C-alpha cells in the first residue's frame, strides 16, 4: 500500500506542476516575454532615430531633444528615398510575376495528371532547397553576362527564383482542397478548362491567392543577399542593402541607420497588421496537402 500511495502522490505532484504550467498566468508571462523581446529592439530603434548625433552617444534612454534630423539625413542627404522607391518597384513587380506564374502552375499540379507530374513538382520544390549562398557566384556571372548587373530586373529575377516554388506549393495545396466536382459542373455548363479555372475555381481560392501575394511581397521586400550581390549604387539598391551602407569605414551614423530601419519596417508592419488573417491562412492552409 505504501508503494501505491507513493505512486499516487507522485502523480498528483506532476499533475499540479503541469496545471501550473498551463495556467493563464504562466501563459500570459510567456506571451509578455515574447512580445517584449520582439518589440523592444523596434522601440529602441525608434527612440534612437529621434536623437541628435550627440544624443545617440549619451547615456540616456529617451531623447533629451527629440528631432527628425536623422530621418532627413537618411532619406535626403544619403538618398535613402531612392532605395525605398526601388524596393516598392522590385517587390511589387516580383509579386505580380510570381503570382501570375505560380497560381496557374499550382492549379495544373493539383488537377491534371501527366507523365512524371510528381517528379516535376518535387523538382520545382527541390530547386528552392539549394542554399542561396551557394548560388551567389553563378547568379553574379549570369547577371554580368546578360548585362543585368546593377539593375532592378536582375533583382526581380532572383526574387522570382526564390519565391515561385513556394507560391506553387501553397496554391497547389489550396486547389487540392477544392472538390473536382466543381470543375466538372462548370464543364457540364459549357465552360472550357480555362473558363472553369477563371470563373469558378479561382474565386474560391482568393484567400489563398491573397496569402501568397502578401507573403511574396514581404519576402521580396526583405531580401538582402542577391540584391547586395548585384547592386552597386542607389539606381537599384533595395532598402536592406542601402541600410547596410550606413556602416562606414570611419564610423557609423547610428541615428540615420535607426531612421532608415524604421522606414524599412513601416510597410511590412502595416501589411502584417491589416492582412494578418491572410498570412495565417497562407502559413496553415497552404502548408496542408
Which SSEs are present, and which pair or pack?
Elements (H helix, E strand, L loop, with lengths): L1 H20 L2 H26 L3 H5 L11 H9 L2 H32 L5 H10 L9 H10 L6 H25 L3 H9 L4 H12 L1 H17 L2 H6 L8 H6 L9 H31 L5
Helix pairs in contact: 2-14, 4-14, 5-8, 5-11, 8-11, 9-10, 11-14
Description:
This protein has 289 residues and is mostly helical. The protein has two domains: 2-49; 78-287, MetI-like (MetI-like fold, Orthogonal Bundle), CATH 1.10.3720.10. 75% of the residues lie in helices and 0% in strands. The protein is built from 14 helices and no strands. It has helices at residues 2-21, 24-49, 53-57, 69-77, 80-111, 117-126, 136-145, 152-176, 180-188, 193-204, 206-222, 225-230, 239-244, 254-284. The longest helix has 32 residues, at 80-111.
What's the β-strand tally? 0
CATH superfamily label of the largest domain: MetI-like
Instruction: Give the helix level as a range of percent.
Output: over 70%
Tally of separate helices: 14
**CATH structural architecture of the largest domain:** Orthogonal Bundle
Question: Biggest β-sheet: count, sense, barrel?
Answer: none
User: Can you write the helix and strand succession as a string?
Assistant: HHHHHHHHHHHHHH
CATH topology of the largest domain: MetI-like fold
Counting structural domains, the number is: 2
Amino acid at each position: 500500500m505504501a508503494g501505491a500511495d507513493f505512486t499516487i502522490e507522485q502523480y498528483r505532484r506532476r499533475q499540479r506542476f503541469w496545471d501550473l504550467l498551463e495556467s493563464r498566468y504562466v501563459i500570459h508571462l510567456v506571451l509578455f516575454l515574447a512580445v517584449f523581446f520582439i518589440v523592444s529592439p523596434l522601440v529602441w530603434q525608434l527612440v534612437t532615430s529621434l536623437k541628435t548625433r550627440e544624443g545617440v552617444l549619451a547615456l540616456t534612454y529617451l531623447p533629451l531633444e527629440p528631432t527628425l534630423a536623422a530621418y532627413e539625413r537618411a532619406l535626403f542627404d544619403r538618398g535613402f528615398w531612392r532605395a525605398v522607391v526601388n524596393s516598392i518597384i522590385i517587390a511589387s513587380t516580383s509579386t505580380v510575376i510570381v503570382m501570375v506564374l505560380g497560381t496557374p502552375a499550382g492549379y495544373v499540379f493539383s488537377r491534371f495528371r501527366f507523365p512524371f507530374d510528381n517528379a516535376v513538382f518535387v523538382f520545382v520544390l527541390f530547386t528552392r532547397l539549394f542554399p542561396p549562398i551557394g548560388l551567389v557566384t553563378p547568379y553574379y556571372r549570369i547577371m554580368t553576362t546578360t548585362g543585368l548587373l546593377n539593375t532592378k530586373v536582375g533583382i526581380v529575377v532572383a526574387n522570382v527564383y526564390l519565391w515561385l516554388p513556394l507560391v506553387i506549393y501553397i496554391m497547389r495545396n489550396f486547389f487540392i482542397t477544392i472538390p473536382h466536382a466543381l470543375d466538372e459542373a462548370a464543364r457540364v455548363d459549357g465552360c472550357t478548362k480555362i473558363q472553369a479555372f477563371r470563373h469558378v475555381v479561382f474565386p474560391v481560392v482568393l484567400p489563398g491567392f491573397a496569402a501568397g501575394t502578401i507573403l511574396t511581397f514581404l519576402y521580396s521586400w526583405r531580401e538582402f543577399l542577391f540584391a547586395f550581390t548585384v547592386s552597386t549604387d542607389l539606381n537599384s539598391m533595395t532598402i536592406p542593402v542601402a541600410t547596410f551602407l550606413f556602416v562606414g569605414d570611419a564610423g557609423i551614423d547610428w541615428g540615420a541607420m535607426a531612421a532608415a530601419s524604421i522606414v524599412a519596417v513601416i510597410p511590412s508592419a502595416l501589411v502584417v497588421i491589416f492582412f494578418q488573417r491572410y498570412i495565417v491562412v497562407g502559413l496553415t492552409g497552404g502548408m496542408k496537402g
